[in-house]
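Risk register update: the risk that structure generation would not scale has been downgraded. Supporting records follow, first protein first.
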Amino acid sequence: MKKEKKAPRPSRKLQHLHYAAHGASRNAVIVHLSNGTRLTGVVLASDNYMVLLGQSAEDPTPTLIYKRAITVVTPAHAPETTSVLLEAETSPDFVRLYTPRTRKRR
């Protein structure tokens, strides 16, 4: 019986490069978690499952975050996009999509 080889996951490699770039630059990032919490700090280290986030590069007590709880990692110096979205809603070119309500199942 032949063993099937699984295709390599390019997203894991891309994710690893992303965290490695943040860790090497030592710039502050904002980590958005799936429960709505936002954490700000510097990526100290990362592996396949976890990220160490500290307040500075020499933080003696960094925060351990599981990657499955992370939704988005953005640089802290990036502009907020919420103001752009609010301006789009008030612009005359913005048209809300109509989504009909579905009947509830009994």
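Supporting record for the second protein:
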Amino acid sequence: MTEQFEMYDDPFKMLILLATLVSEKLGTELKYEQVPSFENETFSIRHEKFTYKKDGTEITWFEFLGRDIASTHDLTRSEYNKMFVECMASLYKL
């Protein structure tokens, strides 16, 4: 039996990774209290809110990225991983 590969065991760590990649793309340093704004056809991220446009999933946090995170959809780890991989790919137009 083959185990499914997951980038992270906690899908919200992938949100932090995505925010880090957005910051790098914009040439800024990620500040957890002020996530940079970015939007493309796949997702948007701005202070205290991430939106995955494909299915409307919204992830919010309170004041600092990673604090009191909540999602509008109860997705499996595999679904979160797929969502964030699609967002990362769209960031680099892959």
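Residues 11-26 form the longest helix (16 residues). On this basis the risk owner (M.S.) recommends closing the item.
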